[in-house]
From TrEMBL:
Protein name, entry field: CoA transferase
Species whose genome carries this gene: Pseudomonas zhanjiangensis
Pfam families according to UniProt: CoA_transf_3 (PF02515)
InterPro entries: CoA-transferase_III_domain, CoA-Trfase_fam_III, CoA-Trfase_III_dom3_sf, CoA-Trfase_III_dom_1_sf
Keywords in alphabetical order: Transferase
SUPFAM superfamilies: CoA-transferase family III (CaiB/BaiF) (SSF89796)
A GO molecular-function annotation: transferase activity
Length: 120
């Protein structure tokens, strides 16, 4: 995916997620969370089964896409906390930039988060 298109997808999806959160409704993205990496953190928002299958493969867990708890967007929303906990165990194995490059390559909207500064 060209980098400019990737940025447009990320901006569009991030604003959509923000609109859902501000409206107080449940987001239709799952997983949609901040994840730790080996050197920081990043945010991702999965909006369909293809993106989830790609994320699962990148995490080294392709079987998650067939797991009844995660096989559909609705199921992932119901089991969001469990899914986030599982993913966090795998996201810490790689650097943020490695995750971003891989996620963007397969079309999963994501963004790096700046580390918190002491006293800030």
């Amino acid at each position: 995916m060209p980098q400019t298109l990737s940025r447009a997808v990320t901006r569009s999806t991030a604003s959509e997620v923000r609109r859902h959160a501000l409206a107080g409704g449940q987001s239709s993205y799952a997983p949609c969370h901040i994840f730790p990496s080996a050197d920081g953190a990043f945010f991702l928002a999965v909006s369909n089964d293809y993106q989830f299958a790609e994320l699962s493969a990148l995490a080294g867990q392709p079987q998650w896409a067939a797991d009844p708890r995660f096989a559909s967007q609705r199921a992932r929303c119901r089991h969001h906390e469990e899914l986030v906990a599982l993913l966090r165990r795998h996201t810490v194995a790689h650097l943020t930039e490695e995750w971003l490059a891989a996620l963007r390559w397969v079309g999963v909207p994501c963004v790096a988060l700046a580390p918190c500064q002491p006293g800030g």
